[in-house]
């Protein structure tokens, strides 16, 4: 199945309350979300048959929808049960799980969409290391020309499709330069995050990570901060200026897909894949399977 187009695979996808054949999990072209980005989603990983922080992801999905002005028409418990069903049907122990909620096709085709149904789908598939062998060597990141937007211009804390338009463009530009991903600054010029992962730096045995005041405060980010504090490592959540990049010794990314991925380079700045980075990556791997 690996390598097959995502719309042409065997298996089942949960859609609006029932399991449908993978190839029949389709929507109409006049789906509101397709035209106006009225959709929110989750990326989750199952390890040994259990989704890590499953409930937190379902709760975030509901919150993201509320932030973009709709209600997911299922309770957290119902979403949890649907994910269990999807994972069991996939036959996978280790899997990536994607839940997506969106404004469907209906009576409205303008910008307003109050009369269209809100829909939910959940799929699971096999997905290995997000950054391939960068996981060991340290990923090389480009610096994006796009900035994370102000919370006054878009609901920046939602995991909403509309926020990924600039991420896709940033990642394409990065890949064209031989990089795995791009680091983005925010609208004020502070270091923000990568296109699908949060960022951490190490200096003098302490950890510095951007204050998530205009981007997703990742579930992995919060988990890793907890792990660092348990190890009595000082974590500073603060605004980070671009000129500070030169002085940082180590760097890593966190995300459900990325897990803990060491970074070796951002633009012209170099980082070592050091002891703390390796230790936190290993501890995270143990925790998700604990
Ligand atoms: C833009 C962005 N930032 C951060 C993250 C990390 O979030 P999490 O750790 O909850 O997966 C993700 C991935 O979900 C993301 O897409």
Automatic annotation (TrEMBL):
Catalytic activity: L-valine + 2-oxoglutarate = 3-methyl-2-oxobutanoate + L-glutamate; L-leucine + 2-oxoglutarate = 4-methyl-2-oxopentanoate + L-glutamate; L-isoleucine + 2-oxoglutarate = (S)-3-methyl-2-oxopentanoate + L-glutamate
Pfam families per record: Aminotran_4 (PF01063)
BP GO annotations: isoleucine biosynthetic process; L-leucine biosynthetic process; L-valine biosynthetic process
Protein family: Belongs to the class-IV pyridoxal-phosphate-dependent aminotransferase family.
Known function: Acts on leucine, isoleucine and valine.
Enzyme Commission number(s): 2.6.1.42
InterPro entries, per database record: Aminotrans_IV, Aminotrans_IV_CS, Aminotransferase-like, B_amino_transI, BCAT-like_C, BCAT-like_N, Class-IV_PLP-Dep_Aminotrnsfr
GO molecular function: L-isoleucine-2-oxoglutarate transaminase activity; L-leucine-2-oxoglutarate transaminase activity; L-valine-2-oxoglutarate transaminase activity
Name of the featured protein: Branched-chain-amino-acid aminotransferase
Cofactor: pyridoxal 5'-phosphate
């Amino acid at each position: 199945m690996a390598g097959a187009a995502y719309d042409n695979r065997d298996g089942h996808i949960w859609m609006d309350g029932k399991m449908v054949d993978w190839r029949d999990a389709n929507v109409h072209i006049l789906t509101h979300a397709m035209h106006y980005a009225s959709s929110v989603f989750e990326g989750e990983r199952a390890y040994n048959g259990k989704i890590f922080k499953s409930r937190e992801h379902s709760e975030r999905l509901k919150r993201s929808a509320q932030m973009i002005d709709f209600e997911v028409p299922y309770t957290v418990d119902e979403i949890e049960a649907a994910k269990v069903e999807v994972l069991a049907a996939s036959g996978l122990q280790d899997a990536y799980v994607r839940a997506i909620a969106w404004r469907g096709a209906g009576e409205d085709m303008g910008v307003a969409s109050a009369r269209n149904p809100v829909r939910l789908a959940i799929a699971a598939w096999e997905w290995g290391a997000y950054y391939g062998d960068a996981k060991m060597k340290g990923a090389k990141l480009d610096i994006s020309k796009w900035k994370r937007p102000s919370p006054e211009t878009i609901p920046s804390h939602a995991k909403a499709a509309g926020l990924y338009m600039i991420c896709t463009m940033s990642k394409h530009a990065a890949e064209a330069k031989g990089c795995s991903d791009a680091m983005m600054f925010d609208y004020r010029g502070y270091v923000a995050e990568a296109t699908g992962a949060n960022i951490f730096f190490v200096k003098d045995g302490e950890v510095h990570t951007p204050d998530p005041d205009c981007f997703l405060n990742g579930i992995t980010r919060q988990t890793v901060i907890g792990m660092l504090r348990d190890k009595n490592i000082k974590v500073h959540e603060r605004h980070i200026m671009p000129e500070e990049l030169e002085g940082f010794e180590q760097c890593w990314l966190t995300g459900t897909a990325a897990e803990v991925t060491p970074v070796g380079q951002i633009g012209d700045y170099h980082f070592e894949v050091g002891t703390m980075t390796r230790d936190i990556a290993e501890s995270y791997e143990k925790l998700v399977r604990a």
